Amino acid sequence: MAGAGGAAARSRFAVVGGGIAGVTCAEKLATEFPSEDIFLMTASPVIKAVTNFKQVSKTLEEFDVEEQPSSILEKRYPNIKVIQSGVKQLKSDEHKIFTEDGKEYVYEKLCLCAGAKPKLIFEGNPYVLGIRDTDSAQAFQKNLAQAERIVVVGNGGIALELVYEIQGCEVIWAIKDKAIGNTFFDAGAAEFLIPKLTAENRETPIECKRTKYTVEGSQEKERPTAASDKLGSALGPDWHEGLHLKGTKEFSHKVHIEILCEVKNIHLQQEFIQLQRTSLTFPKEEKNVEPDQVLWPVYVELTNGKIYGCDFIVSATGVVPNVKPFLDGNNFAVGEDGGLKVDEHMHTSVPDVYAAGDICTAAWEPSPVWHQMRLWTQARQMGWYAAKCMAADTLGESIEMDFSFELFAHVTKFFNYKVVVLGKYNAQGLGSEHELMLRCTKGQEYVKVVMQNGRMVGAVLIGETDLEETFENLILNQMDLSAYGEDLLNPDVDIEDYFD
Ligand SMILES: Cc1cc2nc3c(=O)[nH]c(=O)nc-3n(C[C@H](O)[C@H](O)[C@H](O)COP(=O)(O)OP(=O)(O)OC[C@H]3O[C@@H](n4cnc5c(N)ncnc54)[C@H](O)[C@@H]3O)c2cc1C
Ligand SMILES: NC(=O)C1=CN([C@@H]2O[C@H](COP(=O)(O)OP(=O)(O)OC[C@H]3O[C@@H](n4cnc5c(N)ncnc54)[C@H](O)[C@@H]3O)[C@@H](O)[C@H]2O)C=CC1
Q1: Based on the structure, what is the number of domains in the chain?
Q2: Contacts of residue 283, Cβ cutoff 8 Å, sequence gap at least 6
Q3: Is 33 a member of any domain?
Q4: Residue 367 sits in a domain of what CATH number?
Q5: Phi, psi values for residue 369, rounded to 5°
Q6: Which residues line the pocket of ligand 2, CB cutoff 6 A?
Q7: Where is the NADH-rubredoxin oxidoreductase C-terminal domain (predicted)?
Q8: In a shared domain, residues 83 and 126
């Protein structure tokens, strides 16, 4: 193949990234062009493959994500050539890729699927950890095994999962918002979920059949172990189930929530003691903590004036697309969130370069009930559709937007409840032009629909509601439901029979 200083290897199609988006894209290209070699360049030694894919309804899908050695992918698709080396530089004007191992590759069409990395608060502070891939999850588990108290910052998917799963360690959960889980829920749903978080006796988590990520916990308390700076792929479903997320204490769960605050500062122990002695304005006491004056390795100062000592901090504060430094020097249009802007054909602003998954920012005019969220369902759909678009452009064919972008649909699990979110489930972008309808049975189900001009535009379904398919249809067909009024959520009306 390509040698340092030797002739560059050539392929019609190249894909960068061995996560869900990249692997799905390479697989689809390999199927569309069985006689072409597809280069898949990836910085991680393993790739992520989608297995047990199940189309639950028109737009809802469920699947497992498996970490596999790249040889398995090459066996399944003999025309995929995995190049296990990070991309150091892209020279898009020459259609060339330079890898860390000193080789170069020439492509005709390229799809960038390099994912994203955690957007950390106080980046560089050794006491602040992020969770993204197997390495960082293992580093987290190792540190937790020695911890008595940690501070979790952020209010999205990772924070929701962590605060529920962690045992034997006190968790101070600091959120900017009034209610928990702001990326998925409104205050009503948060209220429904809170008892599950604070319950004394939780259900035992279901044992995970596949052991996924385990490490031995060290007993010595020291500075947090950081994950390596290798860029791995994002974790898959149920990533925490194989991990023993347990601290040093005997109690089961202990979560304290601090709302409407951010982290103002982080002080190391010595600095904290010094500040207490010398600064007139610095709080003299660590508040809300037992008066035994435990000394913690690190102290978190919140914008609400409170200070908490802890062993380390988890920053679950979103992601930033991986565009640096390997894309420097190319003229990519970038969205506000730092992602590569792509049009309705997943094409970036640079000729012959497409992008999919967490690295990209959907810059097309979306369907009124779809929006981008960096999720593995969207990574799979985008990777698949990008390959279709690359194929269509190569063959001079036209292509229509894939149906999966018609409606935002996500199924997941929080606090052991099934959670389905559809369309504008939090009335995103609707202003005051909408109405909400609710149905809630404590400890069992929470159903919220968002209505606009008599039509359903979004829904949150928590628990086993069995309503997802009917509501998906109602949002897609935009039927005028004004005549049904409150009956829409009446548990005595069999709504599925009504509309199916
Ligand atoms: C802890 C956690 C839990 C999550 N839970 C859920 C969930 O329950 N449901 C859900 O839908 N989503 C979840 N997500 C989000 C989901 O995992 C991601 O949106 C999705 O996996 C992104 O896939 P991707 O292929 O775009 O990127 P990634 O999986 O990040 O893959 C990027 C790939 O690019 C490679 N790469 C990066 N830079 C280079 C380079 N310079 N050269 C070569 N290769 C490079 C990396 O090695 C990697 O293989 C979770 C994420 C995390 C971190
Ligand atoms: N079950 C699921 O669907 C899950 C999905 N994910 C996905 O993985 C990715 C990473 O997850 P998260 O880090 O949880 O990101 P996220 O985007 O879900 O949430 C980020 C949270 O951090 C908050 N935040 C941002 N900056 C902050 C700051 N400076 N101080 C305090 N709070 C701040 C935001 O308000 C938001 O609540 C996301 O794309 C997420 O959608 C992760 C876990 C589970």
Answers
A1: 3
A2: 276, 301, 305, 307
A3: yes
A4: 3.50.50.60
A5: -115, 25
A6: 121, 153-159, 161, 176, 182-183, 262, 316-319, 373-375, 412
A7: 413-478
A8: no
Domain identity same for 201 and 283: yes
Query: Which residues partner with 314 through β-bridges?
Result: 129, 152
- Give the three-state DSSP class for 277: helix
Per DSSP, the three-state class of 256 is strand
Query: How many angstroms separate the alpha carbon of residue 299 from the centre of ligand 1?
Result: 31
As for the ipTM of the complex, it is 0.98
Tell me: do 456 and 487 sit in the same domain. Answer: yes
Q: Which two tokens stand for residue 188?
A: 């009503």
Taking each helix axis from N to C end, the angle separating 20-32 and 376-395, rounded to the nearest 10 degrees, works out to 30
Per the domain annotation, does 1 fall within a domain? no
Length of the chain: 500
Per-residue pLDDT of the chain (500 residues; tens, 9 = 90+): 554 456 789 999 999 999 999 999 999 999 999 999 999 999 988 999 899 988 888 889 888 888 899 999 999 999 999 999 999 999 999 999 999 999 999 999 999 999 999 999 999 999 999 999 888 999 999 999 999 999 999 999 999 999 999 999 999 999 999 999 999 998 999 999 999 887 665 665 444 333 333 223 333 455 677 666 667 888 867 777 777 888 888 888 899 999 999 999 999 988 888 888 887 777 655 554 444 457 899 999 999 999 999 999 999 999 999 999 999 999 999 999 999 999 999 999 999 999 999 999 999 999 999 999 999 999 999 999 999 999 999 999 999 999 999 999 999 999 999 999 999 999 998 888 899 999 999 999 999 999 999 999 999 999 999 999 999 999 999 999 998 888 889 888 777 666 66
Does the C-beta of 213 come closer than 6 Å to ligand 1?
Answer: no
Q: Are 325 and 387 found together in one domain? A: yes
70 lines ligand 1 (CB under 6 A): no
Among residues 291, 315, 339, which one ends one of the domains?
315
Domain that holds residue 42: 9-116+319-405
* Residues 67 and 84 both lie in one domain: yes
Q: Provide the whole-model pTM.
A: 0.93
Are 87 and 124 found together in one domain?
no
Report how far ligand 2's centroid is from the alpha carbon of 82 (Å). 31
Are 87 and 41 found together in one domain? yes
With respect to residue 216, please indicate whether it lies within any of the assigned structural domains: yes
Ligand that comes closest to the CA of residue 418? 2
Query: Domain boundary residue among 367, 382, 405?
Result: 405
Judge if 192 and 60 occupy the same domain.
Answer: no
Complete DSSP assignment for 409-462: EEEEEETTEEEEEEESTT-TT-TT--EEEEEEETTTEEEEEEEETTEEEEEEEE
- Residue 410 in domain: no
